[in-house]
């Protein structure tokens, strides 16, 4: 079955803004997409069962669903299990629930937050914010984006403010839009981003 459309559910508007720039770099032509943002992870998880049941009643055979949320401080395995259960109870086959290449729902988690994906592309950050030297990625704090302690949002804010950007506090939407414009998916050093990318590619095998 040729996939022609991707429905994307994300927990907040900054993720929508980032994926609007990233998905065209990931999806093959002529696949299109629509991104739906929620008012945070709690809102997404609360509304997900009803949303998935609705999809199951009308989703065309050549459409697929991608669900993305941040891990934050949650247990990754437990969070993934919640997402998987919602999809399976709604009647969908997920990537993690089948050995077949045919699945409809892909659940993915940004570890620990979407900002780790931005920090995973040092070149994109330097292109978006030219005062930042690419060597920042070799510093211990930033070397492993998914392992940053104290919050990736805070780490990105500290990096940008240190060079005079976002002095009033990190504007997540502006940063997401600016950095994602330059990101190259194949070069990203965040393991959770590469897992996200690989999962999307699996839709088209």
Describe the structure.
With 205 residues, the protein is α/β, with parallel strands linked by helices. It contains 8 helices and 4 strands; from the N terminus they run E-H-E-H-E-H-E-H-H-H-H-H. The chain has a 4-stranded parallel sheet with strand order 2-1-3-4, sandwiched between helices. It starts with a strand and ends with a helix. The mean pLDDT is 96.
How many separate helices?
8
Look at the helices and sheets and give the structural class.
alpha/beta
Quote the average pLDDT: 96
> How much beta, percentage-wise?
5-15%
Overall 3D shape: globular
Order of helices and strands: EHEHEHEHHHHH
In spatial order, strands of the major sheet run 2-1-3-4
Biggest sheet, open or closed, and with what strands and sense? 4 strands, parallel
What does the radius of gyration come to?
17 Å
- Spatial gap, N to C terminus: 10 Å
Q: What low-confidence regions span 5 or more consecutive residues with pLDDT below 50?
A: none
Assign a percent range to the helix content: 40-55%
